[in-house]
Structure formats: structure tokens, C-alpha cells
Amino acid sequence: MKKDRTILVTGGAGFIGSNFVLQCVAAGDAVVNVDLLTYAGNAGNLAELDGNPRHVFVQADICNENAMALVLREHRPRAVVHFAAESHVDRSIASPDAFIRTNVHGTFTLLEQARRYWTGLSEGERAEFRFLHVSTDEVYGSLRPDDPSFTEETAYAPNSPYAASKAGSDHLVRAYFHTYGLPTLTTNCSNNYGPFQFPEKLIPLVILNALEGKVLPVYGDGGNVRDWLYVEDHCTAIRTVLERGRLGETYNIGGNSERANLEVVRTICHLVDEMRPDAAIGDRSRLIQFVADRPGHDRRYAIDASKIARELSWQPSMRFEDCFRQTVGWYLEQSRCVEDVRSGAYRDWIRQNYEERTAR
Ligand code: NAD
Ligand code: DAU
Q1: What is the number of the ligand 2 atom nearest to the C-alpha of 298?
Q2: Measuring CA to CA, how many Å separate 153 from each of 75, 149, 230, 242, 321?
Q3: Residue 219 Cα, ligand 2 centroid: separation in angstroms?
Q4: What is the tens place of the pLDDT at every residue in 126-144?
Q5: By CB neighbour count within 10 A (0-12 exposed, 13-18 middle, 19+ buried), where does 342 fall?
Q6: How does the average pLDDT of the chain come out, rounded?
Q7: E-assigned strands of the chain?
Q8: 6 CB under 6 A from ligand 2?
């Protein structure tokens, strides 16, 4: 492995992390991928890298300081790109503990071990080293319909245990820059969609349920708005910030594609009807069921991504309509492989989350 180009990625077997690892390796980077393989991690996402010397997988917990020290010492990365997290808001409401452990304590452990490693580097290596923390727009809380989009100056106002744990991790990253001079970068991104997302999240869940003629659960009135970004665009944005971002800065990343949940779900229904018509199921939009809302459900997210556009010339390159159609097609093609990740534990979660939400 070319040590000078090695990037240490955490959470690289998850949804965004695996897309990022594939993009980096294709671009010629060497990647050490540290992932605990929780329920959300799937080594199969990286099957095409089997035997590729530019990808090394290490199964480890970011909360384990010895394991993090060892991986840094052995692989001597030029950068850490930190995706590993508990990421599902509904799970954070049901069981917040794991979110505090991984997102807050895990980020702290990784920062501390990265700081020690960085301190021991030569002057030139220290100047080149980067710690990029991947975060979310959820730290900014909720917008009203006419509010301006979130900027990097928007005050933090997290509303779920997930968002609060990510906010805590963002603050730790900031503190490591200001206190110790660790060369950090933080990105706050809106909702991603694309291949390899775990099917507990809205888009894959609805595609797979629609295919099978199951209920399509819409929380509340379906009027909550998210700003959707294709995952490959998110990955190019992260790589851009990694190479050219100003140290200690945060960059918002978004897709300029605000959509209400009900519109997203209806679009999926039309696309699945078109791609997999099924006379026994009929019109899939009839499967939509309004169910009890998520407690503290943020009404609207929208990202102002003008800073990254202005400073680093990044903007989303993919059209929502094209990528969305492609994504629906991908899940329909992969539905048998996706079945493998819908284990007994996954079915238990679906029962727990949806049986409590009596249909309205
Ligand atoms: P994901 O849940 O699909 O993947 C998380 C990965 O982290 C999994 O592979 C899991 O095994 C691993 N992991 C969890 N705990 C770990 C631990 N203690 N040690 C090592 N590995 C561990 O998440 P995602 O949707 O790909 O999100 C990745 C990152 O991007 C997260 O930090 C999330 O907050 C952020 N983010 C996500 C979105 C989105 O729309 N999905 C948007 C903005 C930001
Ligand atoms: O904004 C970035 C965030 O996007 C990331 O930080 C999170 O890790 C990621 O999970 C995502 O959070 P959301 O809560 O927005 O994603 P989710 O797919 O869970 O839900 C999207 C919207 O759809 C949200 O308003 C809740 C709603 N929803 C979700 C599910 C699972 C439903 O209406 N029905 C459902 O069954």
C-alpha cells in the first residue's frame, strides 16, 4: 500500500462510507477502512474491492483507544475521514445509549488518538495531515416553511438524541482544532440517497415495501421536508473539502432538492409501478398509510451550500430526477441481496418501530 496516500476511513462499510471508499480507491487512493460492522455495516458493499491491495479492512470499534492507536501507528495515514456513527433518528429515540457511546465517546477517542499520532509526525507530515469529521444538517434543528436555509453560522439546536450526539461530536472536533491545533475540517450534509443505504431509512424502506405490496408508513402528515443529495455528490464534496478546505472550518453540503416526504413516497410508488407493474398489488400509492409521528420530528431541513461553492467550487452535479430513478432501479435489482441484511434483528426493529405507530 502506498503509505503517503493512505486515508483512514471510519464507518466505511456503511451507506455513505462504502460509497466514499469505492470512490477513493477508484481515484487511486489507498484506504484503511475501520468499521465495527454493527447492524448497519455490510462488508458486502465493498465486495468489488476483494483482493484489491489499495483497500485494507480492519474490524474495530472507534471507542477502543488501543485499537485506534494501533491502526494509526501501523498504517500512518495522511488523513482520517470519520463517518462511523449510529445514524438512525428513530433508533436514537428508542435507545439513545449507543448514540452517546459511538458518536460522542467514539469521536473523542478517535480525536485523542489522532492528536497523539499527529504530534509524533515530522513537521512536513504534520502540516499535511487532516482530520475530516462527517456530520449532519440535523445539528441545526428545524426550519419553518419560509425560513432561510441553514448556513455555517446557524446556531446549533439539535432536537433528537441522534442530532444532539452529532452536535456534541462537532463541538469536540472544533475544540481539538482551537485547543491543540489538530488540522480538522467538518462537513454538515443534508439527507443522502443512493445505493447501499440500510433499509430502515425512508427511501430504501419504501422502495422495498412497495415492491412487496406492503404498507408504506408516512409519519405525521407527510409534510416534513428534507433536502436530498445523491450520495456520490456528497462523496465528491468530502474529497474536495479534504484536499482544499480551510483548516478549522465547517462546510455545509446540500442538494438544492427540497421535497416533502409524501412527494418522495408518491414518486417511489409511480416509479415502482412503472418498473415492476403487478396486477395483484395495483396502484402502489394506495399502500401509503399515515402513522403516528416521530417525537420531536424536525419539520424542514434546507442547506445553503454557497460557502463550499464559493470557496471550493463544489456543487451537486447530479439531477435529482435522474439519480432518484436510478436509485429506485438499483434497489429493485438488488432486492435479493438487500434481503440478506434484513436479518432477524432487522425484523425485530421494524416490529418495534411500526407496531407502536397505530394507523391514523
Ligand atoms: P450508516 O449507519 O449507514 O453507517 C455507519 C457505519 O458506522 C456502519 O458501517 C457501522 O458498522 C459503523 N459503526 C457504527 N458504530 C461504530 C463503532 N463504534 N466503531 C466503528 N464503526 C462503527 O450511516 P451513514 O448514513 O452512512 O452515515 C455516515 C455518517 O454520515 C454518519 O456520521 C452520519 O451522521 C453522517 N451523515 C449521514 C447522512 C445521511 O443522509 N445518511 C447525512 C449527513 C451526514
Ligand atoms: O439530514 C441528514 C440526516 O438524514 C442524517 O444525519 C441521518 O443519519 C439520516 O438518517 C437522515 O435522517 P432522517 O431522519 O431525515 O432520515 P429518515 O430516512 O429516517 O427519514 C426521512 C424522513 O422520512 C423523515 O422526515 C422521517 C420520515 N419517515 C421515515 C421513516 C423511516 C417516514 O415518514 N416514515 C418512515 O418509515
Answers
A1: 25
A2: 36, 11, 24, 21, 30
A3: 10
A4: 999 999 999 999 999 999 9
A5: middle
A6: 96
A7: 6-10, 30-35, 55-59, 79-82, 130-136, 184-189, 192-193, 216-219, 225-227, 229-230, 250-253, 258-260, 288-291
A8: no
| Separation CA 297–CA 145 (nearest Å) | 14
Phi-psi sector, 223: left (phi>0), alpha (psi -120 to 50), beta = alpha
Q: Distance between CA 35 and CA 43 in Å, rounded?
A: 9
The string of pLDDT tens digits covering residues 269-311 is: 999 999 999 999 999 999 999 999 999 999 999 999 999 999 9
Cβ atoms of residues 162 and 88 within 8 Å: yes
Cell numbers for 102: 459511538
Cell of 118: 499527529
Q: To which residue does cell 459511538 refer?
A: 102
107-119 and 65-75 helices, crossing angle to 10°: 40
Strand, coil or helix: 27 = coil
Q: Which ligand is nearest to the CA of 61?
A: 1
Q: How far, in Å, from the CA of 83 to the mean position of ligand 1?
A: 5
Pocket of ligand 1 (CB under 6 A): 10-11, 13-17, 35-38, 40-41, 61-63, 83-87, 102, 106, 134, 136, 166, 189, 191-192, 198
pLDDT band at 344 (very low <50, low <70, confident <90, very high): confident
CA–CA separation, 228 vs 211, rounded Å?
22
Distance between Cα 114 and ligand 1 center (Å):
19
H or E stretch at 326: helix 320-333
**Cβ burial 7-24 (10 Å sphere, 16+ → b, else e):** bbbbbbbbbbbbbbbbbb
Q: Are 106 and 63 in contact (CB under 8 A)?
A: yes
227 has which bridge partners?
Answer: 258
CA-nearest residue, atom 42 of ligand 1:
191
Gap between the Cα atoms of 332 and 207, Å rounded: 8
The packing angle between helices 261-275 and 202-212, to 10°, is 40
> How does pLDDT run across 51-91, given as a tens digit for each residue?
999 999 999 999 999 999 999 999 999 999 999 999 999 99
